[in-house]
Amino acid sequence: MRQQTKIILFFIVLFLASSVYLFSIDSRYNDPTYNKNWYALSFVEPKSDSLNFAIENFSANINFHWELLAGKEKVETGNVEIQTGEKKEISLSQIAADQKMTVRVSSGDATQEIYKN
Amino acid sequence: MLQTIGNQILFYLTLVFVLFIPGYSLLLTIFGRSKTLSVLEKFIISFGLSIISVDFIFFAFSKADIAITRLSSIIGIAAFILICLAIFKFRKFSDSVEDNKLFSFSKNQFILILLLIFLSIFIKTAYLTDTVFPTATDMGHHMYWAKWMVENHQLPTYDGMPDFIIGEHIIFATVATLSGANFFSAFPIVILFLVNLLSILMVFILTLRIFKEKNVAILSLLFLGVLYAVSSPQAKFVSGGVVGNILGNLLLPMSLYFYYRAFSFFEADEKVSSESKTFLALAFFSTFGLLYTHHLTAFIFLFIFALIVAIFLILNFKNLKNIFASLFKIVFSPQVLATLAICFIFFFWVFTPNYIKGGAVDTAVGAPSKETRAGLTIANLRSSIGEARIALGFLGLLVLAIGFKRKNFGYTIIAAWAIMIFIMSTQPNLLLVNLPSSRIGNYLSYPFAILSAYTFYFVFKNKTNQFLKVSFIVIATFVLVDGISDSAYSFKNKEDLSPLAQTFNASNYLATHTTTDDEILKDHNYITADSWMKIILMRGYKYPQSRGYFKRYDDQTKPREMCTLNMISTPDSPEAKTCFADTNTNFIAINPNFDSAQFLKLKNFDQVYSSTGINIYYKNN
């Protein structure tokens, strides 16, 4: 085989190996095994008065405790188990209140809040 | 697993189909199986020519109102390949007398080439391991347009913005269309990585042709591929998605290569051959490809070209009559005129780059309007292209000048390439260049790598005195340490990827819970990979609105709107309230560690999404 062909083949093989490796790691940011430290809390219907909310778990901790507060008063609480990489919606009864409604979720040391005024 | 393997195979087949075969077919049509180009040259050049050919195919599609789909793309590219192969089959080619000893390497040289290629790929891959994720702002902007092309089946008009050039996006869009590759995967970076590696090999063959000395070419691989392998404009530009520069750094040396091959007959006092004409046609084709790919590189190329012409004509002013007679024969040849005609028809009638229409040329020419455009100092250049490389580069210019032969067109190219970029980046006012000097300075690493290689070769080639050799061994050690340590410093610590995942999660929330009637504002300062939000939303290049870097709002030379700043920084201010009313902004995404306090106290904002890195607020009235 000619030298130049060998150089080309060598280049191709190395580039292939390198790029296959880069492809193999490119989605790590979506892999819960690499990002075991966060979860997202959100209202299912952000524009309405509904207080239904969702928790999407990207942490190793699967136990979540939630509280619904009207102003500063706790009106409803609950616990929920969500596996890593999963999302769960929690439905709440409609509460007619003229005050700030807050959903507070804690898991391990992390606490997140969302609210509607 | 099988699907992943299948996707990978499809991706690589697409790369070959889009980025190699069209160019290789074109070379077959032009040169047949002649030895005018070595196997290695054909391999490297095929990629550059493919990029340009595929661009032209899609320009024709655009003019003919043909939707760019998977089927039409395959048909278009396949038709181009088949036409090339048909011409190759039926055309008669003259036998080449080219001697390819230039590409025969000794065993040691061969091993060294392989080693340098290995090191170049290895160092860059190691850097990309931690930077392959879709975070870079520039990459986000470019991939938006590539995805737009995939979704809308036509070439983008860029909403009239002159800063984007079609050639930057066609290859990504085509590869994604044909292979189904996800824009959030490594595929854009893999393509840029390939182009970057090819640009290094392109310099290798250009150096080999010009200096006709294998050791200089091999040393250029060391100085460009291995040393400073990470710093700009190498792997950092790959991961940063600086698409235009990466493509430009392949097409610019390729254009210079063709111009050199076209006019190399001056060096040997030979007559104009048909190959010179063919190479000039390819040079013009490449130049137009550059004009369609990156305006900054094309702008720089035109200045370099002007200096090449000026230096060569001044040095050979006694021979101007013969030079112009030869030029006349070459330029007024069928192949050159036909190529020029096709390129001009495409440029002015089929598809005109938007920066021509958008007045970008006017803004690039004139007195420097900002401090960042007033020129780099030598200290800036040192950090930009490496201390050792700049020292050796200047020495190389001196060595080149000492050994300069006025008819040596190759030396003229290298000298003009280095000198012009040096002047443009350090003294832009002399040439009325009004562009960011650091961006121009990045281009200096290519000619300076060649000059550094030549300096080394010059010192060690003969029985130079021992003192000089020892001095250079010391310098060589310094160069290696400087070049390698530059790469080592650039390696990032293992990055926490959760902010990136949170940005994409929040973006998906916005995509599913808002409509085009909603106006979203996000922050660019503290949200990771925020420019990629628009690729998830796909509601326009300027959607969502963005609070830019704070310093931009204070830029006296370019006054800009203040709403994006006020609506996040002081949402309760009278100015912000007016902005909310004017823009109908009702969703705001910010990093809670920096910007949540001002929203917490406001009753007209609901916090509807929360994670450690992103909060989303909804304006409820």
Structure description:
The complex is a heterodimer of chains A (117) and B (621). The termini of chain A are far apart. Chain A has one helix and seven strands, in the order αβββββββ. The radius of gyration of chain A is 24 Å and the shape is rod-shaped. Chain A folds into two domains: 1-30; 35-116, Immunoglobulins (Immunoglobulin-like, Sandwich), CATH 2.60.40. Chain A has one helix at 3-25; strands at 37-43, 53-59, 63-70, 73-81, 87-90, 101-107, 110-116. In chain A, the strands form two sheets. In chain A, strands 4-3-6-7 form a four-stranded antiparallel sheet, with no helix packed on it. Chain B is mostly helical and 621 residues long. Chain B folds into two domains: 2-92 and 103-489, no CATH class; 498-619. Chain B has helices at residues 2-19, 21-31, 39-63, 70-90, 107-129, 137-152, 170-179, 187-211, 214-226, 235-240, 243-263, 274-293, 295-315, 320-331, 334-350, 354-357, 360-364, 378-385, 387-402, 409-426, 437-441, 445-460, 466-490, 498-513, 533-537, 550-553, 563-569, 574-583, 592-595, 597-600, and strands at 519-523, 545-547, 585-590, 605-610, 615-619. Chain B has a five-stranded mixed sheet. Chain B is globular and about 85 Å long. The mean pLDDT of chain B is 89. Chains A and B meet through helix 1, strand 1 and strand 7 of A and helix 3, helix 5, helix 8, helix 24 and strand 4 of B. Strand 1 of chain A pairs antiparallel with strand 4 of chain B.
